[in-house]
Automatic annotation (TrEMBL):
Family annotation (SUPFAM superfamilies): Protein kinase-like (PK-like)
Keywords in alphabetical order: ATP-binding, Kinase, Nucleotide-binding, Serine/threonine-protein kinase, Transferase
GO molecular function: ATP binding; protein serine/threonine kinase activity
Gene source species: Blastomyces gilchristii (strain SLH14081)
Domain of life: Eukaryota
Pfam families from the UniProt entry: Pkinase
ATP-binding recorded as keyword: yes
Protein's UniProt name: CMGC/MAPK/P38 protein kinase, variant 1
TM regions (residue ranges): none
Record's keyword annotation contains Heme: no
Domain Protein kinase: from-to ranges: 1-297
Length: 358
């Protein structure tokens, strides 16, 4: 029987199996907390993410289920790999992923990346990972520097799929609760999650790498409109939220500064790519595969080494939020068991190969 140990991290109790020790806090959010730990089984550092009380309601259960399913199936060099998963006796879920040394947010705050080759290397890897994610018909919906992890050799991993949606899923959250950067189309009442949302986030991340003091996340929700322009009055009628409409109305007569006034770069290729990523019209915004063809990252672009997903998800795969919480729990436990069985099978196969080689 699996044994658990309790570790207090910043006032939060982590119930982890005994193979994990030396837990140290990495990131704290409302519904989850992330720590580093030592995995005794593989003698290596890992990241432990606690999903707190996912069975409080059906919606939270569905989010936990989708995140687990995605981490199990999205296998790519630029996505944090799932190493282990378990449910504690207190019904909290723990996702164990490979560990990286720092987040992109930490790097940006510690030293400006500016127009260095690191900016190109990191941007290319983000786009490479997104090409794979989008090919699976998945929208990450929460891309930001703190959800992008960097290793000591500059390898980049996209993490935290807790707000991910299948492309085409209806937007049901109130505007104020949407976790991703507020894109113009969401501001104007877009009713489905589309890939363009992630590309807008990439544009913000790119601008932050070039110009560390661009805007804070909160400021960007409003100030981004100063940089890209405002919707014509004919589009204002599509805004359902009265508060948003009221805040936008006085801005319509404001003269917008060009984007180059907000991004401090003399690199015309960088500015050109930023303008394509931050296009007001989502249909004009670059997709990941288009951005990978841009001259700014062309040195790293290799179409033979930019894989796509073999599985393509559809809305119908996850469109059953009304299931009872107990059913969700059974489904999640089944996914956990499936993961462990596949791990065991892989370990047995590896040992068999080693014996055969001897």
């Amino acid at each position: 029987m699996v044994q658990f140990t309790h570790v207090n991290v910043f006032g939060t109790c982590f119930e982890v199996t005994t193979r994990y020790h030396h837990l140290l806090p990495l990131k704290i959010e409302a519904s989850s907390l992330r720590c580093s730990a030592i995995d005794e089984l593989i003698c290596s550092q890992v990241t432990v993410k606690k999903i707190t009380k996912p069975f409080r309601n059906s919606e939270l259960s569905q989010k936990a289920y989708l995140e687990l399913k995605l981490l199990k199936h999205l296998k790519h060099e630029n996505i944090a790999a799932l190493r282990d998963v378990f449910m504690s006796p207190e019904d909290n879920i723990y996702l164990i992923t490979e560990h990286q040394d720092a987040s992109l947010e930490q790097l940006i705050l510690s030293q400006p990346l500016g127009e260095t080759h690191y900016t190109k290397v990191f941007l290319y890897q983000i786009l490479r990972g997104l090409k794979y994610i989008h090919s699976a018909n998945v929208v990450h919906c929460n891309l930001k520097p703190s959800n992008i992890l960097i290793g000591h050799n500059c390898d980049l991993r996209i993490t935290d799929f807790d707000h991910a949606r299948i492309q085409g899923t209806k937007v049901t959250e109130p505007f104020s609760e949407i976790q991703c950067f507020r894109t113009p189309e969401l501001l104007l009442g877009e009713c489905t999650y589309e890939f363009a949302i992630d590309m807008w986030s990439v544009g913000y991340i790119f601008a932050r790498m070039i110009n560390r003091e661009l805007f804070s996340l909160e400021d960007w929700k409003v100030n981004s409109l100063h940089a890209i322009g405002y919707p014509p009055r004919s589009m204002m009628s599509g805004i359902d939220d009265a508060n948003i409409s009221e805040n936008l109305e006085p801005l319509l007569n404001t003269r917008c500064k060009p984007l180059r006034c907000y991004i401090n770069t003399t690199d015309l290729e960088a500015m050109g790519l930023a303008e394509h990523l931050l296009a007001f019209d989502p249909k004009a915004r670059y997709q990941a595969n288009q951005a990978l063809l841009h001259k700014y990252v062309s040195f790293y672009h290799d179409p033979d080494d930019e894989p796509v997903s073999e599985q393509r998800w559809s809305v119908s795969d996850t469109d059953y939020v009304n299931l009872p919480v107990d059913t969700w729990k059974t489904l999640i436990l089944s996914e956990i068991l499936d993961h462990h069985n596949k791990q065991l099978s892989s370990e047995v196969s590896s040992k068999y190969v080693m014996v055969e080689m001897k």
